[in-house]
Amino acid sequence: MDPKLSVQWVQELRESPEIVTRSLLYVTVALLVALIAWYYWKISKIERMISKIPGPPTWPIIGNAHLFYGLNMQNLCEKQTALMKEYGTTLRFWLGPYLWINLAEPKHLEALMTSEYATNKDPTYQFFKDQANGIFIASGENWKKLRKLVNPTFNQKLLENFTECFNEQSKILVDVIEKKTDGSVFDIHDYVARCTLDILCGTQMNVNSTEQLDNTSNFAKHLLWSTEITKQRYIKLHLHPDILFHMTELSRQNMKHIHHLHKFVKGVIQKRKLARKEENIATDALIIGEKKRPVFLDSVLHHYNDLPEDKLVLKITDMFIAGSDTTAVAISYALMIMGIYKEIQEKVYKEVINVIGDNDDDITHLDLPKLPYLEMVLKEVLRHYTIPAVVRKLDKDQSIGDLTLPAGTSAQLCFYAVHRDPRFWKYPESFYPEHFLPEEILNRPKYSYVPFSMGPRNCPGYAFAMMSMKIVVAAVIRKYKIHSDVDLKTMEFNNVFMLEPKNGYPIQISKR
Ligand code: HEM
Q: Given 66, 73, 197, 435, which residue has the most CB atoms within 10 angstroms?
């Protein structure tokens, strides 16, 4: 354009601002129309792709969000189960503009869990990023790097080495709860959670933690409160944007609980850093046998040497959570349930006594395969109460056999439903360890039981979990008889990671 003309044009615009306003309005309207047209084109393409998948009728803009608004975990699972009864296990619902597809067919779970395009977590996991911003919610290259670092820290030899700590902390637990043999009813989770936290610190962090004796951090309670708050965001669409959530009183309370969690994690990091300095650690690994084996915290300190401490805390807090909260819940359930079903307790007790006796001898990794009934009990606990679902964001259109799910879908892999599907379980609602007899296992599709998930993004701690849970439960059961009056059928749940009972795990114990 001739520079003289352009100067003249700018001058004209300055003299008549209404032209500018009108032009801006036209451009904005045109952009909005284009955006809405693009949105509807995209949605209708997705609708065509998923036309075979049933789901409840949608409302404009919010889709099906109203169905879930304000539900707690109990009601959420029940709502989803009811929807699955009405529409089948594979169903879709729209949360505003987001498409969620619920999957509970073993072949669908297998296709997704083993797919390299379904390893990313749904963006809603980012709600947890103030609490922990590590491997559990990471995506893409960031996740791959962390996973590469984590996998070797669960090496079999290292796990065998950890059994010393599992035993040591189990014995402390047995001593600490001795004062409860006075017949009083108490929540066993309060004690077990501190035991599993000390176990996690003593193994993967290589730091001696004494929460069982001092109880200074209240880690499990702050975790419960923070998680309950964060989970509310899932079912309240207006709390999805960080900016809105951070303006609420809920967020302020959340940050207080998170402060306590991080204070504990920071203390562990500082202890380990100091020990490394004092020991003048030249290597970042425990030497076991001939080989160097890195534990998790040493590996992180090595690979993220330059990361400021607050970022380091955020990066590893989820290992504290995943590694202690889950096992604490499962152990507490196992003990409480044995208090309800005395015949199961007696069978476990006899098995334990036969294998390791009623003395204080350590339970070795070689003893563990000799406790098949205890393993069946723990597996049945996890069938009922593991993480009810994981949600993956699909990077690409994904074929799962008879269906193709569109890229961008949030695929909800519903463990809760598949673990209670009457096609695979003789007594889906009952506590029946015999579901895990070898012949029963052979009769089921492989992906009908997935408490630790499967595939490249499965739980790397599953063997650690099974070993530590067996040792803790065996140590308690060989010393105490347990009684509990809880009615599993009427139990209500908290909205947290695992399916946790609202009223805790009340039991009574007496010496054997
Ligand atoms: C009963 C005990 C446990 C259960 C039921 C459990 C279950 C799970 C599940 C379902 C996932 C999500 C997998 C997915 O998204 O597909 C997971 C992830 C994870 N778990 Fe566990 N877990 C348990 C114990 C442990 C322990 C003891 C540790 C560590 C010591 C651990 C470390 C992790 C980590 C680091 C992840 C994130 C993996 C990733 O995103 O790549 N878990 N766990």
A: 197
What is the SS3 assignment for 81-130?
A: HHHHHHHCCCEEEEECCEEEEEECCHHHHHHHHCCCCCCCECHHHHHHCC
Using alpha carbons, list the distances in angstroms from residue 277 to 131, 273, 293, 304, 336.
28, 6, 19, 16, 43
352 CB-side CA count, 13 A:
26
Asked whether 324 lines ligand 1 (CB < 6 A), one says no
Letter string b/e over residues 224-261, b meaning 16 or more CB atoms within 10 A of that residue's CB:
bbbbbbbbbbbbbbebbeeeebeebebbeebeebbebb
Closest listed residue to residue 197, CA positions, set 265, 271, 135: 265
With a 6 Å cutoff on the Cβ, whether 326 touches ligand 1 is yes
Ligand 1 atom 29 nearest Cα: 323
Exposed, middle or buried by CB within 10 Å (0-12, 13-18, 19+), for 352? buried
Q: For residue 177, name the pLDDT band (cuts at 50, 70, 90).
A: very high
- Tell me if 316 CB under 6 Å of ligand 1: no
Q: Which ligand 1 atom lies nearest to the CA of residue 135?
A: 40
The radius of gyration of the chain's CA atoms, rounded to the nearest angstrom, is 26
Contact yes or no for 347/216 (Cβ under 8 A)? no
Burial grade of 412 (CB within 10 A; 0-12, 13-18, 19 or more) = buried
**Strands 91-95 and 98-103, how do they pair?**
antiparallel
SS3 content of the chain, % helix, strand, coil (to 5): 60, 10, 30
As a residue count, the chain comes to 512
pLDDT by residue (tens digit) across 393-433?
998 999 998 889 999 999 999 999 999 999 999 999 999 99
The CA distance from 420 to 435, in Å, is 12
Angle between helix 249-278 and helix 309-340 axes, rounded to 10 deg:
100
Number of neighbours of residue 145 by Cβ within 10 angstroms: 14
What residue owns the CA closest to ligand 1's atom 13? Answer: 458
